[in-house]
Amino acid sequence: MDTLFFVISKLAWGLLSPLNLMIWLTLLGVLLAWWGWRRFGGTLATLGFALLLANMAYPFGDLIIQPLEARFHKPHPMPDDVDGILILGGGESLGRSLSWQTPELGLGGDRYVAAAYLARLYKDVPVIFAGGSGSVQLQDTGKEGDIARTLLTQLGIPPNRLIIESSSRNTHENFRNVRLMLPKPDGRYLLITSAFHMPRAVGVARKVGVNVIPYPVDYRSYKPPYRKVDFDFFDHLKSLEPGWKEWIGLTVYYLSGKTGQWLPAETEQ
Predict the structure, then answer these.
(1) Where are the transmembrane segments (predicted)?
(2) Angle subtended at Cα 169 by Cα 117 and Cα 108, rounded to the nearest 5 degrees
(3) 127-130 and 84-88 strand pairing
(4) What would the DSSP string read from start to end of 78-129?
(5) CA-to-CA distance for 247 and 199, rounded, in angstroms?
(6) Residue 120 pLDDT
(7) If pLDDT is split at 50, 70 and 90, which confidence band does 178 have?
């Protein structure tokens, strides 16, 4: 069932990705117009093209992702003690790492930087990594854990402090699998993941019984004073795509019982 859920989620995203939707809408409109449905096809093509232009001109994705990124905050002050530092995978670029046989960071590389900082702040606690391959095509490479271990040790964390879980393929499996490896099942763990992903991660952690203290990183949006018309389409996709995907993920996880709340908050309701 877990494998079916994983595969369906990846296939569905291929259809529901905002960029793909805009392109499909434009192409469908052109095809319909070519087949004789000129008015309807022209309307669809115009709508798809207008959405592409609008998102090229302005970061509308910021409006989608910012409520997620603002949902949780770094603890202030920091806790006096914790039982471990838990970093979720996603900061590494698996395909490029395998291609070039060297550990490569992706857009979520801030997760590793935060892990190194917190490991220096809390010198005697384990650093726990949870994350396998989220790609259907790159399953069973056996390299996800090795890449994480190499990156974390290169950042100065001693190997004997590391606990690596690399068989999970999504957020639910992250916590379900790593829960069995926690040195103190009832302990408190600083949780590092992207800010937009933190609500879903916290929701799953609460559902499976892992006590986490959110430490969000990897912010993708600009706040209003810095949000400009700049025609940087690829930069705008950095907030549009993950923001849209995360709202879908929150909804699916809630409906499938993987979280107890649709949009978890800092104070459990």
Answers:
(1) 12-37, 43-65
(2) 35
(3) parallel
(4) PPS--SEEEEES-SB-HHHHHHHTS--B-TTTHHHHHHHHHHHHSTTS-EEE
(5) 10
(6) 96
(7) very high
Q: Which residue stretches of 122-232 are H helix?
A: 144-154, 171-178, 198-208
Which residues make beta-bridge pairs with 188? 211
CB atoms within 10 A of CB 163: 15
- Sheet of 188-194: strand order equals 162-165, 127-130, 84-88, 188-194, 211-217
Asked whether the beta carbons of 220 and 193 are under 8 A apart, the reply is: no
96 token code pair: 């490029």
Strand partners, 164: 129
Residues 176-211 as b or e (16 or more Cβ within 10 Å = b) = bbbeeebeeeeeebbbbbbbbbbbbbbbbbbbeebb
Extract the tokens encoding 87: 């970093």
When computed from its CA atoms, the radius of gyration of the chain, rounded to whole angstroms, is 20
Mind listing the domains of the chain with CATH numbers?
75-219 (3.40.50.620)
pLDDT digits (tens, 9 = 90+) for 224-261: 989 999 989 999 999 999 999 999 999 999 999 999 99
- What are 100's two structure tokens? 């070039």
Q: What does the pLDDT read at residue 171?
A: 92
Phi, psi (degrees; rounded to nearest 5) at 165: -115, 120
